[in-house]
From TrEMBL:
Protein name: Protein transport protein Sec24D
Bilayer topology annotation: Peripheral membrane protein
Swiss-Prot/TrEMBL keywords: Cytoplasmic vesicle, Protein transport, Transport
Gene Ontology MF terms: SNARE binding; zinc ion binding
Species of provenance: Gymnodraco acuticeps
UniProt cross-references to SUPFAM superfamilies, sorted A to Z: beta-sandwich domain of Sec23/24, C-terminal, gelsolin-like domain of Sec23/24, Helical domain of Sec23/24, vWA-like
Length: 1058
């Protein structure tokens, strides 16, 4: 198969009116005129011919190499320890150069070689679906009979596309389809050459997840995900039979479920129909012939890894999130802070609608910056505060154009012309640029901070430093399991490592302690005391904090008293039999404490059970597996309303972030308990059936990482855009009181929010599209700051530009979050169906408008999206979306909430785990072995593989693992001697052991969360757990294999192209 590059280009999110998240995009029922061409006569070819791609507009912010650091004027403080202004480039040669030409949009003027998965894909026999790899009940027979899907044998190579035999009546339309002018061009690949698809799927167990979604019921109404309901156009439906051929496709809009007929099974694989249509037995399709994620990652690393990425070019697509590369800020925010689903927006809403590619940015405002890159500068304009546009309030940035000899500036966002304040005046050089351009971060960089004035502070008062409040559930089980002692012991050392501002000796963060079961115990740990004092509040209905002085203290000052307290807590409750707990009052106590101390901060709550004690927020077990795969399944994800809802608001108003560490032994209603954390920028950690011996280190590692994270408090963010488009939907661990201000009680280095954009008007290719993300927050020292990230994108009238500038990892982040939100309000099968439809739509639009004409039987994918289907399939098989009774409701709810706050790297890894072979390790080499595809086929009996997805980690040992390896790693003669339930490798003194342990710890280090290592032997029962992460295979919980999914999508695309 040839996997050459592709061509692709532009648009932005499907800006259907009213579409949010999945709204309009899907639900917009009625056939929109915009989609009209889909149904049009086959000849319609409204896309631009390939190869006519417009050259990108030149960079708005291109700039010469920056000046030396010393030139920054005195009101610019460096925000960190790195003296140099820009990190030394890894590859000096490219330093300061305008761009790496190959990535420069200008480069590809010629039609890219189509990535034609011809050889094999073209031969994919859709008929093999018939056997119903898909689970779900077989559709009514009549629908089966009508299904025309039969495997069309692929045409012979080099021949013009012929409708394969009798079974392919529906193929003929494809042939004459859009690109008919070139229909007779030689086939890119020997379509049939490949073995016809075997039908691994056939005969397999039914899969869930797939069967349903496609055939699905009526799509949601106009509201899309938000508003389930029959789409207005619903009744039109797809005629089941002949309708699929010929021009009938006109009506239904791809991606618009509203149009789909209600007949179940209609689109889906037909379990029953298989036999007859499938034709002769087929050989298995070569799995190597379908696009490989690991290959894409490896190629990008080889091509762009290690090279300095300069951000001076508008609309350039950064290296993949999996690629390691240093970044030099030259006027646009680093991709560590902002990534986009595409870097070239379609100029018009119509184009956006046409392609249905979501237009979104994933913003991680506090992303960690590696040591070799410059931390953000802080600009301080004193009492004047930051300079802003008078009209739209955008902050001074590289997109402001100085005019009139420097006396005025024109806003790049709203075009308003503003006076330059006298103190800020500077002359312009012959290029029209201020002569202090390189001395001011806000003129030359994509990201920087402003010191905020009192106007930006709550109540116009100087802020207090934030506080960390540790709240420990001391009910019977926690004391008995040793958890309470573990936490208390850890805190003694952990508190020495509270984050502090660079340069300061000790942290300004105050600390306080609460223990609780049915009642709350507050502790006075004032430094003057010899012994801590406890105050008990048993009236949990009206929570208050019984002491102020001595409750929130400086750890260094009160260290002795705190030590004393931490030593005593486990003993104090050693004899307690209290097993009931409260929960809401615990959070309320935190909010009240911060209110009294006039500060923001974070609660660390260590909790085990469902709060059943009589108090606000008391919960009942409402878990019900019978709801899975019904329209009521969504209720399993919905939090209980009422007091929890109000509590989130109170927390956000006070800047009180909640981190929840859960240690459940059964259902605890995570959907509700995690509701407050997930609206306050908090994290939820969950350790099922926690045991100190096996899970202790895992938990402590999470706790340490969490406490030490870089973080901002009491944050409010706004995303401003240039005219023509705007942010309309927001996904994250956030709270919103209105439609524009994103509030977060705190935001740490791992939290990302995803913002979707829609058109208001036509965008200009010349000026491009600009966005500015401004985050107002309180530092750990109590300073109020504004963190600014700017990014400029291209705009194009050519869809090919959009597709070329897409980023699959960002797209899947968007889809993951929007789907995870959608399942709160819609049946899961609708959500899955929408995902598939949109996938097919995006790809068919590319095919129709951007690809070199070729046989309909060929699957052609945009180069930048060639592995999109594998991620999409994996998303539909993820715990929240899969609809399996095998998975615990709490685990599903937990993962759903985790995804909502994930950045691009996290969703990438979650949906395509890293599977690394360790049996051929070169212990002398620094390099990690190349990961392999996540499929059972890649495992070998004599092999050893490490799999991780950011949440779980497995070491899989083949039955035939060589004894010497087993000996080196485990110090036992054979696998049979291994103890069950191992969660760590013994520390043995040999190179292999050291190497493997260092690989494991290196991976743990890189991830936001710690992972518990699970060691599984091939064929052992726990291997089932491991197998669910082999995302290219059919899922144990229901869900198609990658191959099946790709075939399915391919068929959908062909239908759309008819
Ligand atoms: Zn403005």
């Amino acid at each position: 198969m040839s996997q050459q590059g592709y061509v692709a280009a532009p648009p932005y999110s499907q800006a259907q009116p009213g579409m949010g998240g999945y709204q309009g995009g899907f639900g917009a029922g009625p056939a929109q005129p915009l989609y009209g061409h889909y149904g049009g006569p086959p000849q319609t070819f409204n896309g631009p011919p390939t190869g006519m791609m417009k050259a990108p507009v030149s960079s708005a912010v291109g700039m010469p190499p920056p000046a030396a650091p010393s030139q920054y004027n005195p009101n610019v403080q460096q925000n960190g320890a790195h003296p140099q202004r820009y990190p030394p480039p890894a590859t000096p040669a490219s330093y300061g150069q305008p761009s790496q030409s190959q990535y420069n949009n200008m480069a590809p003027a010629a039609p890219p070689p189509a990535q034609q998965l011809t050889n094999q894909m073209s031969t994919m026999n859709l008929g093999s679906y018939a056997s119903g790899p898909m689970q779900s009940p077989p559709p009514p027979t009549n629908s089966v009979a009508q299904q025309p899907f039969q495997p069309a044998p692929p045409p012979a190579m080099g021949q013009p596309m012929m409708p394969p035999g009798p079974q392919s009546p529906h193929m003929s339309p494809h042939m004459s389809a859009p690109q008919s002018p070139q229909a007779n061009m030689p086939m890119a690949g020997p379509p049939m050459a490949g073995p016809p698809m075997a039908a691994p799927p056939m005969g397999g167990p039914p899969m869930s997840g797939m069967g349903r979604p496609f055939p699905g019921p009526l799509p949601p109404g106009p509201g899309g995900f938000q508003q389930p309901g029959p789409g207005p156009a619903g009744p039109t439906g797809y005629p089941q039979q002949a309708g699929q051929f010929g021009g009938h496709m006109a009506g239904p809009q791809p991606g618009m479920p509203g149009m789909m007929g209600p007949q179940p099974g209609m689109m889906g694989p037909q379990p029953g129909s298989a036999g007859g249509l499938a034709g002769p037995p087929q050989k298995k399709l070569d799995p190597d012939s379908i696009p490989s994620t690991t290959q894409v990652i490896e190629d990008d690393q080889a091509k762009r890894g290690g090279q300095v990425y300069n951000t001076n070019i508008r609309g350039q697509v950064p290296p993949l999130v999996t690629t390691e590369f240093p970044i030099q800020d030259q006027g646009n925010a680093s991709p560590r802070f902002i990534r986009c689903t595409t870097y070239s927006l379609p100029c018009t809403a119509d184009l956006a609608k046409q392609c249905q590619v979501p237009l979104a940015a994933i913003i991680k405002p506090f992303a960690s910056v590696p040591k070799n890159e410059t931390p953000l500068y802080v600009v301080n304009h004193g009492e004047t505060g930051p300079i802003r546009c008078n009209r739209c309030k955008a902050y001074m940035c590289p997109y402001m154009q100085f005019i009139d000899g420097g006396r005025r500036f024109q806003c790049g966002f709203c075009n308003c012309v503003n006076e330059v304040p006298a103190f800020y005046f500077q002359h312009l050089d012959h290029m029209g640029r201020r002569v202090d351009f390189y001395e001011r971060p806000e003129l030359s960089l994509g990201s920087y901070e402003f010191a905020a004035t009192l106007d930006y502070c709550k109540n116009n008062k100087v802020q207090n430093p934030p506080a960390y409040l540790f709240m420990i559930d001391v009910s019977y089980n926690n004391v008995k399991s040793g958890l309470v002692k573990l936490i208390c012991d850890e805190l003694k050392t952990l508190l020495d490592n509270l984050p502090c501002e660079d340069g300061s000796e000790s942290s300004a963060i105050k600390v306080g302690f609460v223990t609780y079961n049915k009642v709350l115990h507050f502790y006075n740990v004032k430094s003057a005391l010899a012994q801590p004092q406890m105050m008990v509040v048993s009236d949990t209905a009206e929570m208050f904090v019984p002491l102020l002085d001595g409750f929130l203290v400086n750890y260094q000052d009160s260290r002795a008293v705190i030590y004393n307290l931490l030593d005593q807590i486990p003993d104090m409750f050693a004899d307690s039999n209290e097993s009931e707990t409260v929960f809401v009052p615990v959070i309320q106590a935190g909010v009240e404490a911060f209110k009294a101390a006039e500060c923001s901060g974070k609660l660390f709550i260590f909790h085990s059970s469902m709060p059943t004690a009589e108090a606000p927020g008391k919960l009942k077990n409402r878990d019900d597996k019978k709801l899975v795969n019904t329209d009521k399944e969504k209720t399993l994800f919905q939090p209980q309303k009422g007091v929890y809802e109000q509590l989130s608001k109170d927390c956000v108003a006070q800047g009180c972030c909640v981190d929840l560490f859960l240690f459940p032994s059964q259902y605890v209603d995570v959907a509700t308990m995690a509701d407050v954390p997930s609206h306050t920028g908090g994290s939820v950690y969950k350790y099922n059936n926690f045991q100190v011996e096996t899970d202790g280190e895992h938990f402590l590692t999470d706790l340490r990482k969490d406490v030490q994270k870089s973080i901002g408090f009491d944050a409010i963010m706004r995303v401003r855009t240039s005219t023509g488009f705007r942010a309309t939907e927001f996904f994250g661990a956030i709270h919103m009181n209105n439609t524009t201000d994103i509030e977060m009680a705190a935001v740490d280095c791992d939290k990302a929010l995803t913002v979707e954009f829609k058109h208001d008007d036509t965008l200009s290719e010349e000026t491009g599209a600009l966005m500015q993300c401004a985050l107002l927050y309180t530092t750990i020292n109590g300073q109020r700051r504004l963190r600014i990230h700017n990014l400029s994108l291209n705009c194009s009238l050519q869809l090919s530009e959009l597709y070329k500038s897409c980023e699959t990892d960002s797209l899947i982040n968007f889809f993951a979050k929007s789907a995870c939100r959608a399942i709160l309000n819609q049946p899961l099968k609708n959500v899955r169906e929408i995902l598939v439809n949109q996938t097919a739509h995006m790809l068919s639009c590319y095919r129709k408008n951007c690809a070199t004409p070729s046989a309909a039987s060929q699957l052609i994918l945009p180069d930048a999206m060639k592995v999109f289907p594998v991620y999409m399939n994996s998303l539909m098989k993820s715990a929240p979306l899969v609809g399996s009774t095998e998975l615990s409701t709490d685990d599903r709810a937990h993962q759903r909430l985790s995804i909502m706050a994930m950045g691009v790297e996290d969703t990438q890894l979650l949906l395509y785990p890293r599977l690394t072979p360790l049996h051929n390790l070169d212990v002398g080499s620094e390099a990690l072995p190349a990961p392999v595809r996540c499929s059972e086929e890649r495992l070998s009996e004599s092999g050893m593989f490490l799999l991780e997805n950011g949440q779980s980690m497995f070491l899989w040992l083949g039955l035939g693992s060589p004894p010497d390896i087993v000996q080196s790693l485990f110090n036992v003669p054979s696998l049979a001697h291994l103890q069950g339930n191992m969660s760590a490798l013994p520390e043995l003194d040999n190179p292999l052991s050291a190497k493997v342990r260092s690989i494991i710890s290196g991976l743990m280090e890189k991830r936001p969360n710690s992972m518990k290592l699970q060691i599984v032997r091939q064929k052992d029962k726990p291997e089932m757990l491991f197998r669910q992460f082999l995302v290219e295979d059919k899922s144990l919980h229901g869900g198609a294999s990658y191959m099946d999914f790709l075939c399915y999508v391919h068929r959908e695309i062909r239908l759309l192209l008819t």
